[in-house]
Amino acid sequence: MMLAEAAPRRLFGIILLALFGCLIAGAPVHASSIASHGADSKVAEGKPIGTRRLDRADVEPWLDGFMSLALPRSDIAGATVAIVSNGQIVLTKGYGYADVAQRLPVDADRHLFRIASISKLFTWTAVMQQVEAGKIDLDADINRYLDFRIPPYRGKPLTMRNLMTHTAGFELVMRDLFSARANGTDLGATVKRWVPSRIYAPGTTPTYSNYATALAGYIVERVSGEPFDDYIERHILRPLQMTRSTIRQPIPAQLAKDLSKAYLSGAGSSFPYEYSLHRPAGAMASTAPDIARFMMAHLNDGALGADRILRPETARMMHRATYPLLPPLHGMGLGFYQHDINGHRVIMHDGDTRFFHSQLNLFIDDHVGIFVSFNSTGRDGAADILRATLFKAFADRYFPAVEIDRRIDRETALRHARAMVGRYELSDRSASNFLAINGFRHQTVVDVDDNGNLVIADLTGPDGVPKQWREIAPFVWRDLHGRERLAAQMVDGRPSRFSVDDYAPMVVWDRLPWWKSTLWLGPLSQGAFAVLLLMIVALPAIGVGRRYFGIPAVLAATDRRVYFCLWLAALAGVIVPTIWLRIIEPVMTFTADPDTIDIQVIATSTLTLAAYAGGVLLASVNGWLAFKNRGLVSRLWSLLLIFSFGTLFWISWVFKLLSFQTDF
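The chain above was modelled as a monomer; its predicted structure follows.
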């Protein structure tokens, strides 16, 4: 979370922390219950210290208390929950409203919620069914199954295992990821239209990819001979009797009438249905009881009653977290993320549209599952905090444990922390198009506090304050006030990347090369814009002053024409960032106009090229004229202009504002 957002989130976080303490204790909130989760109380992997009976009699009042406080305080309209244990549904229940305007309460049995990326688990289950059928080899080049070609990256082909573990290396895809209007139902056409650039070799780096999942869905469609939507219905939904679930778009009429409304905030207006561009990655809508059946099938090694969707050995292979790309942090299974807590093996997936926010966790060895979905983003992104808090509170209530971390001596810890200091970028990023400028707008900064703890402004607690990380093993840190770990990967004795438990299966942070770092590009760009602004203001002011006082022009006609063109370039150069921001912000919130976005990108790229490349050329000509005909001050000023336009051209080139790429 950005520091600019921390202040409003801090108050909400303090309330939430108090609520969290209450829920774990099963008692009213007191200061002591909050203090008990301070720096000296580690809730982590270890032996159980107590148990509660996981039945409806215990879990329902606890969950009612959570939701009755959390939903109104976080401005979330409604939620639906499912909890299963040992092949039985413990509870499915709705909270809040499915339609605020109609004051229609959420009915868990009736109302469908969009589960977004949890849809991927259905796609990966389908893939494993085809592995069982001998039609897919997890380690074969996927071009074997396609009617178009995915080129190898540095000679290394893509495999289905790469797709399932999010290590295909594709760049981020944002265009039409969610849209208020239908964006095509032909899965083949969708994956062929644009193959995203690859930024990592297969199998080396987690880069979360909706496109990769859509590609896997298309492969299922091709090898099975069935349209993807039909396949999911026939081979997963029907065997599990998930009669109130669908991955079709638009949602069939008999189910659409019971789809929960979608909200940014519970107090606001509802928004229309969001179409998912990559259906296999995010189109599923379902009810809590249906998801309960899906959880029970996976918890029972692929079977629900007499019906089986996977063989036991296939399900177990899917559930094993065998791909820890940054040990000892959480790794990937075949489609599931590792999410261990309190010494218990947990696999999970979460999902987010713009409005719906969901999470599914399976305590795989305990045969327990918990699913929650919210139909609103809530105040300051509260839904993300709530689902994480609910999971941790549930784990601490029914699977509690404590652990005392070892300590690293202060001198060693300080040396390791200082080695981490620098700027980093996410592996899950845009690289070939104008959205790469987000890598300049925001870089993750790792720093060290006075106590030798790591501080990373982007990694905040529920209160919006950056977490402090204390080293517990060589180049492994733990949140000083929580349980999450951070670990670094060493290359040639230096940290080159890091991640944290909650994100390690999906993304890592890579150390930025010097030529992309805002450590120097930030101040230089600010200085460059200051020079351009000074030029924009000074030229008209000098002209007015010269005319007012009758001072003759000191520059030759050619010099004046060049300088005036340079002034126009400066004016354009100052305007360009604002135009890009007006394009980028709607793209990042899935509200860009699909009919005009291409022309906006092309026109703004052209203006950027004219302003900065043209500016460098004109500034160079101006500099040549200055050194030929003018005094020292003019010469120095001309060098400042060359340097300023050169800096802005470098940033535009490196961060792809000059790519003219409309696929993003």
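The radius of gyration is 28 Å.
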